[in-house]
Design goal:
By secondary structure, this protein is α/β, with parallel strands linked by helices. Helix content is 46%, strand content 12%. The relative contact order is 0.14.
Length: 296
């Protein structure tokens, strides 16, 4: 049974002042995230600005982060997009540099049918020996991977879980209920971790844990210990920052927050853009209500 951990951080990608990928700072950030509660790191996902990185940058980033954290945390590499053959090749390269698993994201733009989704992921899983974590995020892809397709994929030996960001609690509950032993469901949205774990979800792939990982982990621990009332109170306390981090497109707010906390990660790459004054004037007072767990 593969367990990447319960708290997986969708790590931001640090860029320097010239907009180049800062591998040394990425290693420092990875170590800091593990110190602040992360069991694993998702590298090269949406929060990591994967569409703005070259294939060579991604592969080196996967290797650098895994070399930094070693066995102290799992590293899940975002290797897939809407180009099937390229997704297979990058997945093989990620396996070669030693990552622990692959993030298998529903492709955007193509809008394949459910059978196409199944065969896309089946072929990628069959090309590598690594475990795969499916990622369903209709708000980004304009395509929902149904519970039926997810559960069909769950029968593939090395497809071990799903990051569910559909915000459809009925669909997510059906996946939790129908999944085979060893297949786990992670929330794909910070504000939905509490309800998803309460119906049997395993954890979260979190954006907010780039700054408040220990607090999120504490809430998850309360759920696991059966102290649901206290966990619910903590969910309510954290909800304003969970929401504020998505007032504009991710990862713009979280990069601003991490930079503001004193850990330099640079600006987003175009076509993303840094947070403007209209956003920061509203966001900063919300951020100031919370302690930052990330060691800086």
């Amino acid at each position: 049974m593969i367990d990447f951990g319960r708290l997986l951080t969708a790590m931001v990608t640090p860029f320097d002042e010239e907009g180049e990928l800062d591998y040394a700072q990425a290693r420092r950030l990875a170590a800091a995230l593990v110190e602040s509660g992360s069991d694993g790191l998702v590298i090269g996902g949406t929060t990591g600005e994967s569409p703005s990185m070259s294939d060579d940058e991604k592969i080196r980033l996967f290797a650098e982060v895994k070399a930094e954290v070693g066995d102290g945390a799992s590293v899940i590499a975002g290797t897939t997009d809407n180009n099937h053959r390229k997704s297979v090749e990058i997945s093989k390269e990620a396996e070669r540099v030693g990552v622990d698993g692959l993030l298998l994201t529903v492709p955007a733009y193509n809008k394949p049918p459910q059978e196409g989704l199944y065969r896309h992921f089946e072929a990628i899983a069959g090309a590598v020996g690594l475990p795969g974590l499916l990622y369903n995020v209709p708000s980004r892809t304009s395509l929902n991977m149904t519970a039926e397709t997810t559960l069909r994929l769950a029968r593939i030996d090395n497809v071990v879980g799903v990051k569910e960001a559909s915000s459809d609690l009925t669909q997510i509950t059906r996946i939790v209920d129908g999944a085979p032993d060893g297949f786990r469901v992670w929330s794909g949205n910070d504000d939905e971790t509490f309800p998803i774990m309460c119906v049997g979800g395993h954890g979260v792939v979190s954006v907010a844990s780039n700054m408040i990982g220990l607090q999120i982990k504490a809430m998850m621990g309360m759920i696991l210990e059966g102290d649901v009332e206290r966990a619910a109170a903590e969910q309510r306390r954290l909800l304003p920052i969970f929401k504020a981090l998505f007032w504009v497109t991710n990862p713009i707010p979280i990069k601003h927050a991490v930079n503001r906390a004193g850990f330099r990660v640079g600006k987003p790459r175009l076509p993303m853009w840094e947070a403007d004054e209209d956003f920061t004037s509203k966001f900063d007072p919300v951020m100031d209500e919370y302690a930052v767990d990330l060691p800086v």
